[in-house]
Each structure stands twice: as C-alpha cells, then as structure tokens.
Hints:
Layout: E1 5-11, E2 20-22, E3 25-28, E4 32-33, H1 46-51, E5 61-65, H2 66-74, E6 88-91, E7 103-106, E8 110-117, H3 123-127, H4 131-134, E9 136-138, E10 144-146, E11 150-156, E12 158-160, E13 166-169
Parallel strand pairs: 5-6
Antiparallel strand pairs: 1-2, 1-6, 3-4, 3-12, 5-11, 7-8, 7-13, 8-11, 9-10
Amino acid sequence: MTTPRVVAVCASQVHAFSKDSQPAIRLLAGLGVEGDAHQGVTVQHRSRVAVDPAQPNLRQVHLVHAELFDELAAAGFEIGPGAIGENVTTAGIDLLDLPRGTRLHLGETAEIEVTGLRNPCIQIDRFRKGLMAAVLGRDAEGQLVRKAGIMAIVIAGGIVRPGDAVVVTLPPPPHQRLERV
C-alpha cells in the first residue's frame, strides 16, 4: 500500500470550477485555504449562500483521492489535480471510507477534520459531458456512492505542499458514515 501523502495542492481566488496547482497552500484555522474563494467561517459556495449565508462553512477544504483520476482515465476522462475544484489531492488514503470527524494531519502542522462528502452538481457535466455519471456509482446494496471527494474544516493551520505526509486519526467509535455536506 502507498504511504498516505499529498500529491498536489490547488487554490483559486475566484469562484471557478477548477483550481490552479500551487507549490504550497496555507491552511488557516477555522477559515480554510488562504486566498481561496471558499475561505471563510460561513459558507462560501454560491448555491449554499443563496439558501442561507449564515450557515457554518463545513466545506473549507475539498480533498480528492488521486486514485479517482485513474478510474476516470479508464472511463475516458483525462482529469488532473485541481480540475474538479479540489484544494488537496491525496494518494494512499481511501478518503470516501473515512468516518465523519476523522482528523488528517497534513505536513508539519496543518490539521483538518472531515465533515462529509462533496455532492457533485451540474457544473461537473458542464466541465466535461458525462463526468457526473462517472463520479457517481452504486454500492453492493444499491446505495448512491459520491466519488467526487470529501470536505473538511481546518482545525490547525499550516503550510501544505505536494509530497507532504498525511497522517490519519480516526475519531472514537461508533463511527459515522460520511453524508453529503
């Protein structure tokens, strides 16, 4: 098994679907990625702001597992880090199977807490036709599986770079499955 690590880090100052690769990003406790359009204590995603701008921002950091890109490539989609809007691309961690409340330690000091699953929206098909179906699936019981990554809040700030180790700390049981946030 691959040692859990950061593959890429991305950010965008504007509300665009994709984010640009960076040599490093700075996570700010309670806020998110410094300089990113989704940084804030309250929700910053435009569709959620329209519903209730005062709700807490449970989507400060978006993570995607690089293994998804391999799966998408096999389905004919050439997608790279940042293309589907994530801030942190990881390898060696099954992000989708982490329970809510899992802590991820990134680099030397940054720590984030997993809040839930990204719910892909119509923008994903506008980016690449058919991509929505490729990032949704069904498990053995027929339940919907959202594969477009997970969301987290920043607990402790710090610099995160490609190549940084990721240390996973599970919350105490009973573990709660991730739901869309």
